[in-house]
Amino acid sequence: DADVTQTPRNRITKTGKRIMLECSQTKGHDRMYWYRQDPGLGLRLIYYSFDVKDINKGEISDGYSVSRQAQAKFSLSLESAIPNQTALYFCATSETGLGEQYFGPGTRLTVT
Amino acid sequence: AQSVAQPEDQVNVAEGNPLTVKCTYSVSGNPYLFWYVQYPNRGLQFLLKYITGDNLVKGSYGFEAEFNKSQTSFHLKKPSALVSDSALYFCAVRVPFYNQGGKLIFGQGTELSVKP
User: Are the beta carbons of A45 and B42 separated by less than 8 Å?
Assistant: First the structure.
């Protein structure tokens, strides 16, 4: 969905490096999410935010941190990347708790 | 515990034939169910959702899904498959709000392949 953008789209980094993945949305939604996708495991929630002052851990937050710089921006950081963080990362937004989530195109991250 | 299962890793269908992608769920309280589709190198696209009401839900691209409370299922269906329907399909359930803000729990995905 073009309303949710992610940068970079692809990234290769080395073990121990710090990396930031960025997400921006023009949908005006308060709720934003970060997921990672691994083959055969579906998507798993890393962090979520209901507004700029409200950030919460998801089911697999260890090794990750986030920053909600504005309503429209939600960044995911890997402070010290490790190979098992190699995955496809998605940002998503939603308007309400019962509404569907809108996903960005994803960032393919490889940690060597 | 909340969970979603998609029992088939892959579904193969001939173009023009009906298709079904299966999904079963386990959730406390009322289930809020979703189907998403993922095309190669793309994000997930919303297809349809069940919140309440009619058990047959109609969505995008001619897809529909049937909610069956007694069987805890939410199977995705289409009367006539197209080659362009070939993609990865995810079923998801929203957990109660008090559990991590009502996050979505996804199934592992089903690869749909439609042959001409």
Answer: no
CB B13 within 8 A of CB B112: yes
Best probe of the A interface among B44, B100, B105, by most A CBs < 10 A, is: B44
**Strand A107-111, strand A10-13: pairing:** parallel
Angstrom distance (rounded) from CA A34 to CA A5? 13
Reported as a single tens digit per residue, the pLDDT across B40-71 is 878 899 999 998 888 999 999 999 999 999 99
Q: Residues of A with CB below 8 A from B45's CB?
A: 1, 103
Q: CA nearest B11: which of B81, B64, B61, B62?
A: B81
- Residue whose structure tokens are 């010290």: A80
| Neighbouring residues of A99: CB distance < 8 A, sequence distance ≥ 6 | none
Tokens 């029992």 sit on residue: B7
Place of tokens 């979505």: B104
d(CA B73, CA B20): 12
- Which of B104, B105, B106, B108 would you mutate first to test chain A, the one with the most A CBs within 10 A? B104
Exposure string (b/e) for B103-113, b if CB count within 10 Å is 16 or more? bbbbbbbbebe
Convert the pLDDT of each residue in A67-93 to its tens digit. 999 999 999 999 999 999 999 999 999
Contact A56/B100, CB-based, under 8 Å? yes
**C-beta of residue A36 within 8 angstroms of C-beta of residue A46:** yes
Tokens of A62: 């260890």
